[in-house]
């Protein structure tokens, strides 16, 4: 039986947007431009899961900021850091290998959450080299999806944006396969007011699209507008 309860993102406003939090056995995707808050939200969710006693696999293709983790985890940093399993791939092949390797960790430690931040940073580099990265990305996502089902946990992946010149708008990288495999998608935008961001629900199985909330990035995470 599928566990009905969702897992908190560590932020009440984001939980509400997602209809209660991250859905186990599925992939939730956050996408947005530079400094829109993707990594911050991944860290908040990770810290929250670690505090609850789960283990977190965090695959970071852009260089994990330990300083930022410390800010968000605060006094709990030392107590929870040993259950954070950090992988930092340098290319897309290595990213795939690390996703495969991470299964061993969940066999030995209480599974809590898988984070891939970002799914497409290294993919983009490969794409520029003209390789068929799309299939590889799909394979990586299917493998992560497999873990969410095997271990009954949610996955959180981030995605970068590119300018879609035909639609004259920013769209997520990774094409339709990444879009389909993510059962919930949240877009993050920087607002004109300095410091403010907006999180908008783009896709969800049981909630209307277009719902949103505004937030600021602060020392220990984010603060949603009242
Ligand atoms: N302690 C802090 N207090 C306030 N704002 C902070 C703090 N630490 C980081 N920020 C802000 O957070 C933003 C970066 O957020 P984050 O790293 O989550 O974005 P991102 O979407 O992951 O960006 P990228 O695409 O570059 O990976 C920056 O604007 C930065 O100024
Ligand atoms: Mg980031």
Automatic annotation (TrEMBL):
ATP-binding is among the record's keywords: yes
Residue ranges constituting the RecA family profile domain according to the UniProt record: 3-161
Alphabetical GO biological process terms: DNA recombination; DNA repair
Family annotation (PROSITE patterns): RECA_2 (PS50162)
GO molecular function list: ATP binding; ATP-dependent DNA damage sensor activity; damaged DNA binding
Keywords from the named record: ATP-binding, DNA damage, DNA recombination, DNA-binding, Nucleotide-binding
Family in the record: Belongs to the eukaryotic RecA-like protein family. RadB subfamily.
PANTHER family, per database record: DNA REPAIR AND RECOMBINATION PROTEIN RADB (PTHR22942:SF47), RECA/RAD51/RADA DNA STRAND-PAIRING FAMILY MEMBER (PTHR22942)
Purpose: Involved in DNA repair and in homologous recombination. May regulate the cleavage reactions of the branch-structured DNA. Has a very weak ATPase activity that is not stimulated by DNA. Binds DNA but does not promote DNA strands exchange.
Matches recorded under NCBIfam families: recomb_radB (TIGR02237)
Protein name according to UniProt: DNA repair and recombination protein RadB
Gene that produces this protein: radB
